[in-house]
DNA sequence: TTTCTAACA
DNA sequence: TGTTAGTA
């Protein structure tokens, strides 16, 4: 199928589908005209990409992860032995980011709390 | 009409 | 990411 149908099937915009290709996440074949040709597998791959992206993984990690994942309907299943470790590492990275943001939030709360009454009316 | 690339908002 | 221009 060409990109138009992919947009309908996946709900992902043309722009984004081309971007995923540029990032090495998809590799559709080309017609002599230069038009991209996608397969059913690509539709599935886009679903995986969306899930991994929602999980906060960068496209570079997703690129390696795609070959190591299966889809049993309800969710993704990590296959390669390194995949689980990679996911745990990402989880830790996210946890670290959350902690940093909480520190920032606390700092802001303290500053806000010291504001004179009239200025705090937000 | 649909898609492509490249570049700008 | 959206949008746009000029094509094939």
TrEMBL record:
In its UniProt entry, what is this protein called?
A: MerR family transcriptional regulator
The cross-references to Gene3D superfamilies, in alphabetical order and at most eight, read:
1.10.1660.10
Q: Can the keyword DNA-binding be found in this entry's annotation?
A: yes
**Family matches, as InterPro entries:** DNA-bd_dom_put_sf, MerR-type_HTH_dom, MerR_fam
Annotated SUPFAM superfamilies: Putative DNA-binding domain (SSF46955)
Source organism of this protein record: Actinomadura adrarensis
All copies of domain HTH merR-type, residue ranges = 1-68
Question: What does the UniProt keyword field contain?
Answer: DNA-binding
Q: Does the keyword DNA-binding apply?
A: yes
Domain of life (superkingdom): Bacteria
- SMART domains membership: HTH_MERR
